[in-house]
């Protein structure tokens, strides 16, 4: 019923306005059959996604027995008696909220163009119609792509606080620069003497990301071609969006496929830079050499570096919302400019005639057009566009509102990109007065500039082997195994640690003393809590707002395992990276690795890292890594993200503890191997810091 209403009330009027030949177009029968849409596979993302969103990829198949008939113009009729649509639909539920309906909005789109097959009826008559002569599956796919293939999205806000423009056109994730360098060992497709003699190929490459498509030059008669060409793509979803590369042999009749290669940009984002040979698929042999670079989008103007080789240095994102009070045609503009009385013809048509308008954006040779909105002086486009910028100081965005059929101007606007450098967050979001337009003609749009910057690749952790003289294997009555710790450790609130090594004299002068980067000393003192308080590690025993057991403070004399209490060496170190992602408004903490941890047995130690973002210390805020078994030098490479403003982050602390992962419940000893408290007010979060931190235990002396 919904789709029938949509076809008759929305699509039918749009078809009638699109061409004079279709002004009598009418749907006479609408039936969507009995076969439902099927979801043949589903994937939920748990990494590289915001904690406040759910991201699902659905493989859908709609093999429908639809029955739709339409009168084009008497006696010409057309119909569809079945269609098949297949593709991968991404569904994003965000933001997650603490009350019904639990989700603030739903966004869905195809990451890549789906495949469409249509069983037409009445095609003999249909092709005779001037309005339908160009109609095909490809044309309909273009319509679908304009609605819901990236970067276009279908959005349904469920609460008032969600901004539709941010849902429909969020800022891209980043930019990937693809260097198409060369290929080797390609298949020889050209043959001579009736196929008896194999020759060479004339290879070229096509590269597609979403609706962006490029073709390389053709290298004549070469199975090892060299291109050395560079292409740049805006990436809206990573992981998800792919580089689709195809190699062809150019021929006079039909080009032969030499192989394909697809690469998810999530891999490029993770590695920052990739430079390697990739095997071609679908052919016996052949490889292509690509270099790929991931560029993050920054708001710091000091990072602006113009490229001498013609590559982009920035990206401009434009969200076109609407316009108001557009003139109906160029004659109305002329009349307004001359301040003359309108002609008799203009006065007669003024009440009924409204323009069919679209917007044309241009930065130098890059021209992009919006969809056409018919018969209104107040059109709503609600579309997004992206442009690569090579010189922020000299380039400008030229905007022209045009009439659809005559292509005449209804208004213009020039926006120098240098103006965005001076605005807050490099963004302009406002109504602009159109020049060479009506008396009160305006256009509403949002322009956002972002600087392209290469972040440093993830650090490769090289762990030093533990010195033998500092590794003491505790011997007990149980055959060399240390006493097992309880599942719930008791850690304390602790002061800020400097990245520098803590002097022994300071470490031994109080239960737990640490240097801050400002040089002041802070002493940990246990609060007056019950020393024998019962502690549980089972989250099901506590409400989400209860203080987690691992945050209970230890009073003096609290029970550590005997091997820990007798240990006279270092408890180990932890390698952390802390930085603030201004584009995403997130604090990012990377738990990279530990080294020289206290050894609980001859086989090493089972360990994991627990983290709280103070003052949040309830179960729901508890973060932890996986357990790394039988090693005193575990590598975690685990990322935690916190939704917080930069100003708020600077006023908070990170409570990090390394814990014994052995899960035995018959002992009440602490599980802690060591801990560290990081005062974020002492760090340059926007620049970030990567350091080794010495692990401490409150109430115990730490003697290296």
UniProtKB/TrEMBL annotation:
Where is it located?
A: Cell membrane; Endoplasmic reticulum membrane
Biological process annotations from GO: endoplasmic reticulum-plasma membrane tethering; lipid transport
Principal localization reads membrane
UniProt key word Magnesium: no
GO MF: calcium ion binding; calcium-dependent phospholipid binding; phosphatidylcholine binding; phosphatidylethanolamine binding; phosphatidylinositol binding
Domain named SMP-LTD is located at 1-159
What InterPro entries would the database entry show? Answer: C2_dom, C2_domain_sf, C2C_KIAA1228, Ext_Synaptotagmin_C2A, Ext_Synaptotagmin_C2B, Extended_Synaptotagmin, SMP_LBD, Synaptotagmin_SMP
Q: Which CDD domains does this one have?
A: C2A_C2C_Synaptotagmin_like, C2B_Synaptotagmin-like, C2C_KIAA1228
Q: Which domain of life is it from?
A: Eukaryota
Q: Region labeled Disordered — which residues?
A: 458-538
The C2 domain, residue ranges: 158-278, 296-436, 570-693
| Bilayer topology term | Peripheral membrane protein; Multi-pass membrane protein
- Transmembrane intervals: none
Residue ranges annotated as compositionally biased, kind Polar residues, are: 469-480, 488-518, 526-538
Stated name of the protein? Extended synaptotagmin-3
Give the species this sequence originates from. Answer: Cottoperca gobio (Frogmouth)
